[in-house]
């Protein structure tokens, strides 16, 4: 059924909606990262040890990853605006509860709801980009969305740290929780799901919904996007959220200030490389998965040099390490661009949700494996970690890099075969540097 177009694609209204949605994503990243600068205060406030503190981060990621498919289903059913509003309300109330609780159990529940609200945001923004902008603009805007969102981590590291120092835990977290209120108003008033006229959502029975999810997952393009995200994202996530700082300080002998500076350099490099990669992907769409593999190989080579370096690595090499590792963040965004090639608009929420699971599952497994190896090597605990321990533990990453590269190459072959069979001429279109716009959903596309 043809719908009347009410607004210009890529016009002023589209940019306004994107700006509001991106600000919501920045806030989500801010809430996700907020505990990073409050770790020491949290151990005192809740009277917990380091393992319990790490549980906060792991729990958030588990909730985030576990909700991606349900969120994708709800996104296709209710639209981006409804889920953005739900995510904002959930994060705001959860962060407010986190500000006032002094119980570890209640704090854990609050952080779980922060993760739940966070899980609703990113795929909604990508859906809005797909709906409101030209396909050729999509790759660059998806990259910009991901990179601008990282500013939330920068804000968490700076202003939030200052607020905690000046006003204490309760006032600081209560104040930042209220940032969601004006964004709620802006989202309710300005965001619209599509530039086309609204139609009543189709009510799908549970059995039909399960069949649809299986079909989307069965599409090799969805799996190619998921494995691209899995392979390229985890190294940066693990480094920034958990093991990078201890590796630089306890392993490489840097001062806390120098280690913090390198982590900031990573965020800056993510934004710069994301712009370049977004342009490159839009020019050579047929080679997107090869670009991902190339970046992952560069990460592997750089880590190998650092881990084999006799003694502590020089600062220039560590700068190269954090920049190359950070390039995995923009590379992971290519996974969503791949999913869009193989998915019509009505299933894009489910496809993006499945892609988004990849990197976070890999991150969780890598974080856990590195921690297990360090515990086995140093029963005395974190205070005894040295460079030798980290050299062994960081090798856990190679397992997931190897698995991911093999799967990317496997599903790239299957995805090309799929396009040639289901959409004759699509492969030639991509080879010519032109975007392929999926014409619609067909149940036969499940493989």
Automatic annotation (TrEMBL):
Superkingdom classification of source: Bacteria
Keyword annotations from UniProtKB, A to Z: Membrane, Transmembrane, Transmembrane helix, Transport
Pfam families: MFS_1
GO function term, MF aspect, one: transmembrane transporter activity
Membrane topology per record: Multi-pass membrane protein
Domain Major facilitator superfamily (MFS) profile: 17-422
Transmembrane segments: 15-33, 53-75, 82-100, 112-135, 224-245, 257-278, 290-309, 315-339, 351-374, 390-409
Cell compartments where the protein resides: Cell membrane
Entry annotated with the keyword Transport: yes
Gene3D superfamilies from the UniProt entry: MFS general substrate transporter like domains
Signal peptide residue numbers: none
GO cellular-component term (any): plasma membrane
Protein name in the entry: Sugar phosphate permease
């Amino acid at each position: 059924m043809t719908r009347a177009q009410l607004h210009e694609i890529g016009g002023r209204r589209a940019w306004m909606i994107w700006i509001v949605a991106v600000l919501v994503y920045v806030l989500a990243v801010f809430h996700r990262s907020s505990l990073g600068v409050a770790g020491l205060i949290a151990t005192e406030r809740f009277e917990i040890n380091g393992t319990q503190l790490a549980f906060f981060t792991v729990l958030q990621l588990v909730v985030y990853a576990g909700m991606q498919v349900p969120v994708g289903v709800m996104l296709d059913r209710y639209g981006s605006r409804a889920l953005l509003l739900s995510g904002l309300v959930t994060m705001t109330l959860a962060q407010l509860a986190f500000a006032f609780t002094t119980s570890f159990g209640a704090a854990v529940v609050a952080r779980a709801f922060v993760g739940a609200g966070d899980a609703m945001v990113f795929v909604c923004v990508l859906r809005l980009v797909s709906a409101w902008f030209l396909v050729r603009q999509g790759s660059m805007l998806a990259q910009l969305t991901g990179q601008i969102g990282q500013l939330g981590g920068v804000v968490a590291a700076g202003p939030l740290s200052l607020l905690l120092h000046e006003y204490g835990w309760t006032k600081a977290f209560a104040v930042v929780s209220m940032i969601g209120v004006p964004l709620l108003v802006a989202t309710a008033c300005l965001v619209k799901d599509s530039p086309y006229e609204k139609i009543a959502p189709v009510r799908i029975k549970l059995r039909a919904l399960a069949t649809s999810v299986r079909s989307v997952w069965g599409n090799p393009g969805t799996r190619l996007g998921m494995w691209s995200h899995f392979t390229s994202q985890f190294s940066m996530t693990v480094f920034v959220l958990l093991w990078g700082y201890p590796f630089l300080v306890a392993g490489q002998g840097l001062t806390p200030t120098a280690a913090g500076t390198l982590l900031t350099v990573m965020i800056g490099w993510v934004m710069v490389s994301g712009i370049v990669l977004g342009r490159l992907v839009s020019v050579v769409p047929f080679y997107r998965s090869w670009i991902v593999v190339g970046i992952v190989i560069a990460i592997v080579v750089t880590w190998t040099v650092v881990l084999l370096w006799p003694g502590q690595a020089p600062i220039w090499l560590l700068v190269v390490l954090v920049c190359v590792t950070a390039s995995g963040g923009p590379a992971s965004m290519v996974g969503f661009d791949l999913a869009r090639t193989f998915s019509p608009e009505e299933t894009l929420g489910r496809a993006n949700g499945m892609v988004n699971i990849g990197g976070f599952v890999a991150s969780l497994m890598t974080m856990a494996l590195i921690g297990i190896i360090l515990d086995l090597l140093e029963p005395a605990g974190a205070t005894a970690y040295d460079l030798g321990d980290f050299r062994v533990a960081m090798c856990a990453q190679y397992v997931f890099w190897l698995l991911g590269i093999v799967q990317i190459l496997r599903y790239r072959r299957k995805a090309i075969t799929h396009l040639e069979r289901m959409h004759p001429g699509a492969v030639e279109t991509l080879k010519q540097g032109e975007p392929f716009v999926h014409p619609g959903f067909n149940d036969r596309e499940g493989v």
